[in-house]
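Dear Dr. L.,

I hope this message finds you well. Following up on our conversation about the binding site, I have prepared a predicted three-dimensional model of the protein together with inosine 5'-triphosphate. For your records, I am including the exact sequence and ligand specification that went into the calculation, followed by the structure tokens. Please feel free to forward this to your student if that is useful.
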Amino acid sequence: MLPILYLATQNKHKVEELSALLQNHFNVRDLSTLALTEEIPETGTTLTENSLQKARYIAEKFQVSCLADDSGLEVEALGGAPGVYSARYAGEPKNDQANLQLLLQNLQGNPNRSARFVTVLTYFSGGAYHSFEGEIQGSIVDNPRGTQGFGYDPVFQPEMETRTFAEMTLAEKNLIAHRARALEKFKNFLDETQKCADE
Ligand code: ITT
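The resulting structure of the complex is given below.
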């Protein structure tokens, strides 16, 4: 039987992407079966701090093993913004469409479109935690393209690609994206841990 793993995120798109990648390793659960009514606190100043904060919050409150995800889009011409503040770039409440429009506005006329997406996953289990980072380089397109995915996907075109993430299927995005790359490291960690336990 596969072990249970809770996804410590309130973003249903992350649940969808992570579940597809973890289905052979865990019995994956979202937070809907836990009595969580508040927003998970996220007060750190780095992706790593926030990722750990979210994982610890759910693991300690409900005594479960969980995986948290903190992600950000770092745009070179904006000095790395929105970065750790990607979710609330255009202010409260969180709004993907407003964030994306503000980003395009702030980059208007700027020829430097370089950007990267970063994800830090934190696995919290039995009081111990481990973090895994994944990234993908790319550029910000002039106008949004595509309807799949979420967040900044319509404006992010990965390097070596002609399509934005929002023009790819979930399976195509999951082959190359930041979240999938971090998850690959997590899976390697699990394999190594298993090997040690078997020896
Ligand atoms: P949780 O904290 O509950 O996990 P969140 O949506 O607040 O959900 P983050 O704090 O990690 O997640 O914020 C990341 C922001 O970047 C948010 O606005 C997302 O829409 C966006 N984002 C994250 N991953 C993305 C991806 O793969 N493609 C496009 N946008 C993404």
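In brief: The helical segments are 12-22, 47-62, 96-107, 170-176, 178-198.

With kind regards,
A. P.
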